[in-house]
Design brief:
Elements (H helix, E strand, L loop, with lengths): L10 E9 L4 E8 L5 E7 L6 H19 L9
Length: 77
């Protein structure tokens, strides 16, 4: 982690706290070079499986197509 004050790349974590209500980790850090203290928040981004999402959308489209009797996947001209 780079220090926001002196841009040195060596910092150490002095405190970490998991915040389950917001799904993130709050960390207190200190620069090894200048001693500047700062906070960071690290949040996990959820991975979306695009292939699985595409399958689900296809099943929904097929279900709607069967219900309406029209081919909704073909472009209407």
């Amino acid at each position: 982690m780079q220090c926001p004050k002196c841009h040195h790349n060596e910092t150490r974590v002095t405190d970490s706290r998991y915040r389950p209500e917001r799904n993130y980790v709050s960390r207190r850090r200190q620069c090894e070079a200048c001693g500047f203290k700062f906070s960071t928040i690290e949040q996990v981004k959820q991975h979306v499986d695009l292939a699985e999402a595409a399958k689900k959308l296809r099943r929904i489209a097929d279900s709607l197509e069967r219900a309406s009797g029209d081919d909704i996947t073909q472009e209407q001209t």
